[in-house]
Amino acid sequence: MIGKNIILIGFMGTGKSSVGKRLAKKMNYNFIDTDAYIEELEGKKISDIFNEKGEEYFRKLETKVVKDLSHKLEGYVVATGGGLPLRRANQRPLRNMGTVIYLKSSENTIYQRLKYDTTRPLLQGDNPKEKIHKILKQREPIYRRVCHRYIKTDNRSFEQIVEEIEGYINEITRNQRTKH
Ligand code: S3P
């Protein structure tokens, strides 16, 4: 299953969608973003879903989407919402879907990227820096456990990250070929 799709996980603002789109283009894969998929499904922006229906409703949608997609996709780069790998029910389907790559950024990089962002409900209100610190601390061990490989993104361009992922995927594919 490992080479079927490439799944990008990681905190908000680590570049999952930006890297994912470029990676898909370079490797001739299709691209899908779970947040965009949910927005389309609901006909609403993520922040409106959170405001009107609450976070729990959104998390249930994420679980449904992962289950649906895990049976369907082949040859896709999948960018996931930052909270999607947290639920146990989502973890196995994610890994079954393909190679899971964690885009790992430091707190400071994330803060610099998101300090003026208004689209992430979890970071709105006072002291986004403190919020990032707390949430990242909770999530870091989970991202590490769920991924097959992590890639550091600080001070690196999207293109450099894409190349590293591509190299890793090619290596896996070569190894699988020699085994068979
Ligand atoms: C969330 C991350 C967001 C989006 C929602 C919740 C999270 O996606 O799914 O705001 O819990 O980390 P991005 O990681 O694409 O920002």
Explained architecture:
It is a single chain. This protein is of the alpha/beta class and about 180 residues long. The chain has one domain (about 5-180): Rossmann fold (3-Layer(aba) Sandwich). The chain contains eight helices and five strands. The longest helix is centred in the last third of the chain and has 22 residues, at about 160-180. The radius of gyration is 16 Å and the shape is globular. The model has no long low-confidence stretch (mean pLDDT about 95). Shikimate-3-phosphate binds near residues 16, 83, 120 and 122.
Strand order, main sheet: write it out: 2-3-1-4-5
CATH architecture: 3-Layer(aba) Sandwich
User: Any idea how many domains?
Assistant: 1
> CATH class, please?
Alpha Beta
Protein topology:
Elements (H helix, E strand, L loop, with lengths): L5 E4 L6 H12 L2 E4 H9 L3 H8 L1 H18 L3 E4 L8 H10 L1 E6 L2 H8 L13 H19 L2 E4 L5 H22 L1
Helix pairs in contact: 1-8, 2-4, 3-4, 4-5, 6-7
The structure holds shikimate-3-phosphate.
Shikimate-3-phosphate binds next to loops.
Task: Give a quick summary of the entry.
This protein is an alpha/beta fold and 180 residues long.
List the defining traits of the structure above.
Rossmann fold, 180 residues, 59% helix, globular, five-stranded parallel β-sheet, binds shikimate-3-phosphate, alpha/beta
